[in-house]
Batch of 2 targets.
Target 1
Amino acid sequence: MTTTYEQALHTFKEKIKQIKSYDEALGVLYWDLRTGAPRKGVNTRSEAIGVLSTEMFKLSTSKEMGELLSQLEDSAASEQLSDIDRRLVAETRKDYDRSVLIPPQLYQEYVVLTSQSESAWEEAKEKGDYEEFRPYLDKIINYTNQFIDLWGTKATRYDTLLDQYEPGMTVAELDRVFSGLRDKLVPLASAIAASPHQPNTSFLKQQYAKDAQKSFSLFVLEQMGFDFQAGRLDESVHPFATGLNPGDVRITTRYLQDDVTSALFGTIHEGGHALYEQNIGEDLIGTTLATGTSMGIHESQSRFWENVIGRSRPFWERYYGDLTSRFPGQLDHVPVDDFYRATNVVAPSLIRIEADELTYNLHIIIRYEIEKLIFNEGAKAADLPQIWNDKYREYLGIVPDSNANGVLQDVHWSGGAFGYFPSYSLGNMYAAQIADTLERELPSFWQLVGSGDLLPIKQWLTERVYKWGKARTPSEIIVGATGKPLDPSHLVTYLERKYKDIYKL
Amino acid sequence: MTTTYEQALHTFKEKIKQIKSYDEALGVLYWDLRTGAPRKGVNTRSEAIGVLSTEMFKLSTSKEMGELLSQLEDSAASEQLSDIDRRLVAETRKDYDRSVLIPPQLYQEYVVLTSQSESAWEEAKEKGDYEEFRPYLDKIINYTNQFIDLWGTKATRYDTLLDQYEPGMTVAELDRVFSGLRDKLVPLASAIAASPHQPNTSFLKQQYAKDAQKSFSLFVLEQMGFDFQAGRLDESVHPFATGLNPGDVRITTRYLQDDVTSALFGTIHEGGHALYEQNIGEDLIGTTLATGTSMGIHESQSRFWENVIGRSRPFWERYYGDLTSRFPGQLDHVPVDDFYRATNVVAPSLIRIEADELTYNLHIIIRYEIEKLIFNEGAKAADLPQIWNDKYREYLGIVPDSNANGVLQDVHWSGGAFGYFPSYSLGNMYAAQIADTLERELPSFWQLVGSGDLLPIKQWLTERVYKWGKARTPSEIIVGATGKPLDPSHLVTYLERKYKDIYKL
């Protein structure tokens, strides 16, 4: 019996290592495609990606994997597993069930559909023609409903989708936290819009030399404790972070000549994701647990570093000189406080990815409510433009002039990623809750930021969040880090404190 | 019967596509490791490479592949195959047999040995201590002899090794061409050394700005017809070229601040390899025939572009102004002919990779003769330093001061790559023979070079060499391109004509 268990565990871990190797190889292939792979090789490359993805899927869903999981879940075997191995078995079981429950033929159809759909979406967005995209969206909703049926409905149908990106998250929980947020942020945004004390941002729009921007981005990453022996910074049209393994975490940014903050905050944001991936515990390396535990927790780290730290007054009191000295004569007449306020402008806008730290959450709540309507109330693709526009009017006081700036703006739905959007606001809420704990547990927190001593903060986050990787669930992480479950009041308090000061409310 | 054949062909081609996909993925992983992958991720990356390599090996040597090959080699089936498919079957059979003839256990031992041996070689070379490396080399020779036994001895034992890198090449043939070369080049090198007309090279050693060097390298690549939509130029410590697929061919170079020609000729050399890979016929894409037909033919293209074109007087008459204008004030006083002569200095030297176009061949002949002694005459690792030094004295008139600059200088033997060295000189001979044909078939050949009109030359090479990929054997290529088999007299004539002029002999 013992031998069988040990053999099963050994074989299981070999399989996991293989899966992880495919995952790493695919990660490099995608990174390469997005950072400068020659255009003419893309088709052949896509085929290679297809071959490797298929093989990885086969490894994850093989009959042998199913049998190994059953053996290791057997109560006698399970008792002998280490905590990490038990968690690895549980996570693998979850992926396994999710995959094998979908008939291969159905999944194949869906893959083809989403690939066509993403092209259709791109074209429709360019023309602002929702009707061109609508049939695809209807089909994707239809397939997703079939998947929910196969996977099984949790408390509500939409709960089944949420669980993909934020394990354990529910509609009941999100309704609670988002309603708390919405009720506070809508009036706060209105008060800000009405304030006579609007920051001056004119000086942000100058020609800023790319080399100097890059040098400052690299400097800030280094200050955050980004390990350049275990990662690199490149350029891409859409910035992203990818953790191939904790020793190789890559981020990208995009330099805009006429905007000094875009690449910088993009770098800090991706740098936050990178710190998480670089500091995952050594005991998890080579396993599928060596990654972030959820999209929401991952996003909490990018947003903590970008917004809580990077858009704070102490941060700029420390680093403004390092910025201005790189652009001689360009910012000399701008006091640090003006600069700080300019990086924190709040204004209702139509486009999510350009939104400020406050109204961003309203963009997310709108998408969350629409996704709930689709999967829990049967809303159809044809209904969405109207619903979209109504909600923008209600929450942000503005209405898109075109569907391109409205319901067509995001790529997510065209790829079937329903349930993903809430992660972004969960990230903001987790980040504020973590910052609240940090303020209490590291009494010198803001002094550390103000003196550029960021490594103790990174160290604290490593102990509470990073090192656990996927070996703890999102709720275990947030309780472990802050002592209590998700509480949206911290984000409200943080935003109120910050913006009442900036806008003199 | 027909159905079976068609099914077999379809399945076979699917397998080939899979193998090629793994090959491309591994190519990207290696390229990435050599162009800036973070140091701390290397171990995990190596494991991923191991997993993918193993899978690729399994695909190539599976029982199913053996059966498919037998089915397609059946005379009735074989007749129905297109020329390309028949060639694909033959090439796959060759790899298959070569692989399955070695027992997995033996191969596994050999892989471990060569990996240890490469480390041992590196250390031994650093210390100049041959004795540290000798036991490894003995073992590698021993394993290689076992492989020869398993693969079967061709005309001589060493023939079996040559065939790996230059299919169809024999000891008889190499003895013939190398003796012709050696007998002419040894006295020519002596005459050059004795000439009072040594080129002045002092101006090459200045500080040359890297950006300007890079700009010139990119400009020359563009002039050669390198397609930047199907390739890229990066930097690495050891320059290399890798053809992932004809739409994605990557080369690297290395910029030395104090040498304006090193990166340039490195770029042109790798650019020659790249032109080959970029212009392989579309009918071969996605198959394992979409690569160069042999190391020798590949090397002929890098050396044709680097030496025949890049180190020619017409080339510099056309491009010298483009070079000097990038380094204002640094070369203004140097006449183009002085520059041309400085890039063509001939001098006996100890290190192969630093050798000039002429004496390089003597370095290769020495290695060829030693490898023959090992495998056909039973020479042992212990004998090699003495043999090495004796041959350097005889052919180049100099003797290494240390084994580090002698028998330990090359990595090849530590990795078991016996039979590879001749490819380099084969490349020189093929290149000169092709140049001879070009001079006759494109009467304006040197005018084209002199006017910077290089694309007709690239086009000619595409038709005669590049587009065939591995669908023709090396001898088919050279006969197809020049109308006759390999003839070393062209290299002799080319070198004599060039150096008698430069050294006024």
Note: The first strand of chain A starts at residue 231 and ends at 235.
Target 2
Amino acid sequence: MAEFASTAPETETLTVMGGGLVGSLLALYLAQHGHSVEMFERRPDIRRAGPVEARSINLALSDRGWRALEGVGIAESVRDVAVAMHGRIMHSVQGQLTYQPYGQEGQSIYSVSRAGLNRRMLDLVEQNPRIRVAFNQQCQRVDLRQQTMDVLDTELNQSRTVSFRRLFGVDGAYSAVRAALQRTDRFNYSQHYLDYGYKELTIAAAPGGSWALEKHALHIWPRGQYMMIALPNLDGSFNCTLFFPFEGPASFAALQTPAQVRAFFEQEFPDAVPLMPELETEFFDNPTSSLVTVRCYPWTYHDDVLLLGDAAHAIVPFYGQGMNAGFEDCTVLHELLARHGHDWNAIFQEFQQVRKPNADAMADLAVYNFEEMRDRVADPRFLLQKKIESKISAQYPSKWLPLYSQVTFSHLPYAEAWANGQQQEQIMQRLMPHIQSEEDYQRPEVQALVAAEMERR
Amino acid sequence: MAEFASTAPETETLTVMGGGLVGSLLALYLAQHGHSVEMFERRPDIRRAGPVEARSINLALSDRGWRALEGVGIAESVRDVAVAMHGRIMHSVQGQLTYQPYGQEGQSIYSVSRAGLNRRMLDLVEQNPRIRVAFNQQCQRVDLRQQTMDVLDTELNQSRTVSFRRLFGVDGAYSAVRAALQRTDRFNYSQHYLDYGYKELTIAAAPGGSWALEKHALHIWPRGQYMMIALPNLDGSFNCTLFFPFEGPASFAALQTPAQVRAFFEQEFPDAVPLMPELETEFFDNPTSSLVTVRCYPWTYHDDVLLLGDAAHAIVPFYGQGMNAGFEDCTVLHELLARHGHDWNAIFQEFQQVRKPNADAMADLAVYNFEEMRDRVADPRFLLQKKIESKISAQYPSKWLPLYSQVTFSHLPYAEAWANGQQQEQIMQRLMPHIQSEEDYQRPEVQALVAAEMERR
């Protein structure tokens, strides 16, 4: 307890509800600013969980996430267990492969294990003398006026009331802290589900632990109304996810038997099936999960409570930005803590005012990218357009950064990226009718059109 | 209990949570189809409440509401206590009055007291041998799987568990039944608040119980960013509502003292102030209420639970359609009960599929009409456009019904009305640049333009 006694008078004991990726990172940042932190996590300590722990899920770390990890000195050690993905590889029904780089030479997104990353961050949290962490602590109810929360210890099956002065709700898409805000007057809230679910599957490692598909890529099987994707693991396997309608002729509802699953996969993903020895078992053992976008506002209750991460803005996974956006929340809060010191009202207000439009833009971008991934990447005209955009970007680097790069390889606010991206798409709609091949880009009349468009920007 | 014993084998005991206007009407319709009904209401019996009952609020009954009341034989007795409003009267800051009729000659909306209407309907409910009603029954929790709800008797302060086979959630904008659906997977939900609140005020009856303003009108003081309205009561008084921003230079937050309230009203509503003897007292005694739009889907849980009225689709009050939409829910359900008999799955599914797009359209229309009432009705060009529309409608009755009439004086599905209204607005945008006065409508070139537009419809 020495660390609490030594707390400087202007620092506080802060309460963090949620010890997932964003909660752990947040606790580290708050401690960095001299505060004592009490962190509660609903689940058991993932580091002590047996082999039956949650299925391993992969996340795509990109620049916004890396910057946030760098701020707490953890980036290098994470990079050691991340697999770089330089681009997308599309698999046609006929097994034909098409490659699309994500950015310029040397730019990649990184496949990391959610569980592995969380373990590493919890180690750091536990080593930090300013942070005290408790697992199996389920928040059942928050009393905003009394500034208390009822917490159930799920191991002991005992409830107790915990007081807080300042509570950070980082408890995910189904946040219990947000539920308390939702009962206050004038709290705007929406939860919107896609008509699609997802199921996790596995492409096994090749003999000797090598990769059966190109390791440094994100693989996509785009099929118009649905898709499968695969992200590489360190051990040679790939984590696959099938994004698929709940209902309809091709849907989860339509695949009821192992034979139906096999027939469907052999027809739609024939090059993947031989690499998925556990296909039918996994299909019926693993849950079908839903895809929700949560928006709300305000994210604060006075200067007592602040929501961050999925609790404030849960998004669908198609841009690989859910974790990155939550990590960027921590970067922004870190900057505000540095700027406003202990003026929590200023910190909380500016945080939500700055982040809300960006979170909304990212939510829109994530839904937009689903259509791109499941449908447009299979269209040669779309891929040609991406190549032309890349050429424009190379020729006019100060005037043009492709939307994907703005989101993934820059720190531009998401709302600006989305607005720029929509403007750029309009320009491409004007240019593409004049372009039938990559070579056309050099034609003088096309060059003149591009120059005129750039002149106007 | 004889009535339950005599229930025909194909009928059921149905549970209705909520005994407000829509809940009472629903119970009457369900009983009409031979079912036994158990109705629970959270509040005390409004008929036994003392003089301190809820402030009297007026509602605008229009054609959809009347049809639903006719179906249970209550329309005529309600008409006796309703005040017809033939149009809007706008009050300028200078006290100038402008009249705009709502529809054709003989078409009106009707000001009725919410409490009075509810009392009348509860009398009918209680006289019905198939309906059993209990007051002071607060639904605390619905267990969808067990088909039970925990109900607190707020008089006895005792909780009990009530089983249901089929539950109708008619418990308003903050529905407890909906809260249970919200915890199921893939339940889409949003609650969105306007930045405006409202406050109820009173224009007193003139000496002798006469009306100090024109009785047969809805009065509006449109002031751009806010407005006051007044609806007539039977006793000569008017119920006023101030719709006003929560924050800002002219807002509830800015009016903190009786002197500030008086100064503001004297500046903005000078012709009303002398008629409001209790202005300052009411302003500070009456609550400032918020304005929410609630959307959700599905409205069902299997064939066990169905949401209706505000529980399914709470809207802001600016089109006077909240109650009418809830009553129309009952009309639609009544038709489906007649068509599908005891196939509850068919009834529930068709109900939500038919009503959801109409409820969404009505929610949009209600927000749209706020801008019209607080701002556009003060614009002479807008009023001219309404007059021209009325002339088009008279000349081409089969091709043109003004949007307001479609919503208020027809039974066209709201979604169709809204779509038609938007098309008609586009036509008016093309016509109005050619029209500077009412007389211009007869000019040959304008007549030709109108004829050409009608040709295309």
Note: Residues 2-82+112-190+292-369 of chain B form a domain with the FAD/NAD(P)-binding domain fold (CATH 3.50.50.60).
